[in-house]
Specification:
Strand 13 (about 305-315), helix 18 (about 320-325) and strand 14 (about 335-340) form a beta-alpha-beta unit. The protein is an alpha/beta fold. It is built from 29 helices and 19 strands. It has an 8-stranded mixed β-sheet with strand order 12-19-17-18-16-13-14-15, with helices on both faces. A 7-stranded mixed β-sheet has the order 3-2-1-4-9-6-10, with helices on both faces. It is about 45% helix and about 15% strand.
């Protein structure tokens, strides 16, 4: 093995070190005789001890100057004369998962190359300015800085020490790129040093943008050992600018199917650092399931899982409705029903007596609705069962008519218990996806609910944040677009509710009995927080829906989207003014000119109609 010194840079705003970092360092250490970890900002005690165990030197410094100043301080801690004693110097950082393929393959390949420094990928020239402090009116072609290997002759050069001595301190991300990454390759090539990359220049130039981030499968298929975190965590709009939006899920699936890398290392970090809605969207965590055919092994599910249905019902006259869905459960699943009156218990006992399932019916205090049923009356269910389907009967008396209420109720229940085959497919999905913790239907978006999307937490944000504070959950978990069931019919992994149900809830924590709680109360806040509690436990939330419902939903969404794209650009006032003008012009014109004004008139009439609708 070559005598290499490696410097690994780490930063996390909370000072938490996830396991993917330890794995990376353990594998890198196999190719380094000396390894230094340099940390910007805070670091937990656990992280500090683990870094000390894995490295030869640990430096914890003020969070100043991004990675470049961290590298500089680490190198100066050795001294440039000492660094000259090593065959190679590696500068790398926390921004990658991996190695998904053995580092040995990369080092063996690059040892054959005639170069003085090398990296994994080369960013092609782009005619763009990212900072006023940029040297050139374009981004020059350069070796990307997330992994750079520098040979002894370059480290020992006067140019190397001068480069780092003259390095400016970056005060923002753009400056960090400009001051080091964009200058490094150009500077050393101008001083006569040759660069190379594992991934060829030709591959990188085929694409319009950052390949490791927006086309990661392309280079993974070339056995690139590292995968950028930004391939998963970038703003979704970037993925649709440079592709279909499928890239993050594609790279996750490719890693799982083609490598031995433990994707739980990825899940652990993403679940801690991303909003649940961003994670769901970027990775397309949607389960669109067949309601006519079961695609799985029921015998295996029956032997290896414990499943329960929980029903809360204030309404005694909805027992038959609840039964019509409960009968879709497999006979080996148990049913727990919570009602508020003795008569309600009798009505449900009669309705559910036809089932072969084990059925338990209990009277609960008429306070706190479904929330208190989950967190007080039924809390032991989530410790006893692997997967629980949580439902409640609804009449939605706040809606303008009965049809709206029925549609909403059906939307909620069909999303979780549409048919016997669908229910088994849901259970199979949880069984096959151990990180799936919470699944609910897509949010309603019609009629009364037309304004829900985009305004999911407006009345509940303060209450939600207060509850997170009560549970010592960092506010960074707060999500203004929670993947929540707004009718509270959903499936949940029992372990996903550990934190929620271990809290000593009392009925007094909830508002007194009321059919329709005011939006903004604790009940609505908890409804939106359910998926966040699951995420804190290390599980993701997803949308689940039968194919027949998706068919309707897709047409509805496309209809709304297309209409939004052709909405008039003019105000009602301006349209009326234009109509008056073109009406006059049309009446005093003839021939082609009259036709022209008539066309303009019709345009603004349609525009006005669209606005008034």
């Amino acid at each position: 093995m070559k005598n290499r010194v490696g410097i690994y840079f780490f930063y996390d705003k909370d000072g938490i070190v996830d396991d993917y970092v330890y794995y990376y360092i353990e594998k890198l250490k196999e190719f380094c005789s000396e390894l230094c970890v340099v940390v910007n900002g805070k670091l937990t005690d656990i992280g500090k001890e683990k870094f000390k165990e894995l490295s030869n030197k640990l430096i914890i410094r003020e969070n100043v100057g991004f990675d470049s100043m961290a590298y500089k301080e680490a190198m100066e801690s050795y001294g440039y004369d000492k660094l000259k004693e090593y065959d190679e110097l590696i500068l790398c950082n926390f921004t990658c998962f991996g190695p998904v393929y053995p580092f040995k393959e990369m080092f063996d390949e690059m040892d054959k190359r005639d170069c003085d420094f090398w990296g994994i990928a080369r960013y092609p020239r782009k005619d763009v300015i990212i900072s006023k402090k940029q040297d050139l009116p374009y981004v020059p072609e350069h070796v990307m800085s997330y992994f750079v290997n520098i040979k002894q002759n370059m480290v020992a050069s006067k140019a190397f020490e001068e480069y780092w001595n003259n390095l400016e301190t970056a005060h923002n991300y753009a400056e960090a790129i400009v001051f080091n990454e964009l200058r490094f390759t150009k500077y050393f090539e101008e001083h006569g040093f040759k660069s190379d990359t594992l991934i060829s220049r030709e591959v990188m130039q085929r694409f319009a943008e950052n390949v490791p981030t927006f086309n990661p499968v392309e280079i993974l298929n070339l056995r690139c050992p590292l995968v950028k975190r930004r391939a998963f965590i970038s703003d979704y709009s970037m993925y649709t600018i440079f592709g279909t939006g499928a890239q993050p899920r594609a790279i996750l699936d490719t890693i799982q199917e083609k490598t031995d890398y433990d994707i739980n290392l990825i899940w652990q970090n993403l679940l801690r650092t991303m909003k649940g809605s961003e994670l769901k969207r970027n990775l397309h965590l949607n389960f669109l399931l067949d309601e006519k055919h079961f695609h799985g092994n029921e015998k295996e599910l029956k032997e290896n899982t414990k499943v329960a249905l929980m029903i809360y019902s204030y309404y005694e006259d909805m027992a038959d409705y609840a039964y019509s869905y409960a009968k879709n459960l497999p006979e080996w699943a148990d049913i727990y029903i919570y009602v508020v009156t003795e008569n309600g218990k009798k009505v449900f006992e009669e309705a559910f007596s036809k089932l072969k399932n084990k059925v338990h019916i209990e009277i609960k205090e008429n306070r706190g609705q479904l929330a208190s049923a989950v967190m007080i009356s039924a809390k032991e269910l989530f410790k006893k069962y692997d997967y629980v389907c949580v439902t409640q009967t609804k009449k939605s008396t706040q809606l303008r008519d009965a049809v709206d209420g029925e549609d909403f109720c059906n939307h909620c229940w069909n999303g979780v218990l549409k048919s016997p085959e669908y229910v088994l497919n849901v259970i199979q999905s949880f069984y096959d996806n151990p990180r799936l913790g919470y699944a609910c239907s897509l949010p309603p978006h019609w009629s009364y609910f037309n304004n829900l999307i985009g305004h999911e937490t407006e009345e509940n944000a303060d209450n939600m944040k207060e509850i997170l504070k009560k549970f010592n959950i960092p506010e960074s978990y707060y999500d203004s677009e929670p993947i929540a069931s707004y009718g509270e019919c959903y499936w949940v992994r029992g372990k996903g509710y550990n934190l929620l149900i271990d809290y000593p809830w009392k009925h007094e924590d909830f508002p007194e009995a009321k059919l329709t709680p005011k939006d903004g109360c604790i009940l609505n806040a908890l409804e939106r927080l359910n998926p966040i509690f699951v995420q804190v436990e290390g599980y993701y939330s997803a949308w689940v829906m039968p194919l027949s419902m998706i068919s309707v939903y897709l047409d509805n969404i496309y209809y709304e989207y297309r209409n939004s794209r052709i909405q008039p650009k003019y105000s009602k006032k301006k349209c009326k003014k234009k109509i008056r003008i073109y009406t006059i012009l049309k009446n005093i014109s003839f021939g082609k000119l009259r036709k022209k004004y008539d066309s303009k008139l019709n345009k603004y009439k349609k525009c006005l109609d669209s606005i008034e609708k």
